[in-house]
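Hi C.,

You asked whether I'd gotten around to modeling the 222-residue construct. I have! Everything is below, sequence then structure, no commentary in between.
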Amino acid sequence: MRAFLNDPAMNWWGCIKRENEVMECNSPSPAMVQTMEHLLNFQRCFVKVTMLVGGVVTLAVLPSSDGKEERIVTVSIWLKPGQTFDLPLTTLLRWEPGPLPWVGRLFVDFTPHVEDTLLKAHEARNLDCLDSWHFLGVVVDPDWQGKGMSSLLMKEGFARTSLKSAHLEATTMKNRDIYAHFGFEIDEEHLFGKGQVNRKGLAAKGAAATGYPEWVMTKWET
């Protein structure tokens, strides 16, 4: 969860206010603790829904120094071709009882634009976008970033998706460049939350409410 503390999309979907931005994951601030709990519930919802619809959740774990426990250091999440988060609203709200605006932001403001981009990109290559794997992302504990954990699960995922395309949405320039390194190409850039949030995905008004960019990307050969 710490890996997504400053992710613009999570802040936007989670309706996080600027004054509640988490600057330090161990902060005793009640506002930050509340934000951390909300983001954690939101991410748990993503994992649960992925598993419920038959998607793939892969973990990389390491043993503790005494060998009695294991620590999850990396998680990757995939939806198989044709799978979606199309579930009853009551089911989603039961797992993520946060502010209702996230439902509209994810399923109305976000998803249709991404699907339109994917449709155009695949049709240009005479391919069916419903035959593409959806890479929802890889999350690496900050203590283990830069140590090859992301590459480990990316390669594991590509072995599964072989011979089909895979697509994703990069929420930061850093992630965009990392995914480009793995062979993903930019299909289109979108600006989300304009008039609602700033570049960090935090609630804003006026000139500060610029929205934040996301990049729809596809790896055509896996």
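If it helps when you're writing up: The mean pLDDT is 87.

Thanks,
B.
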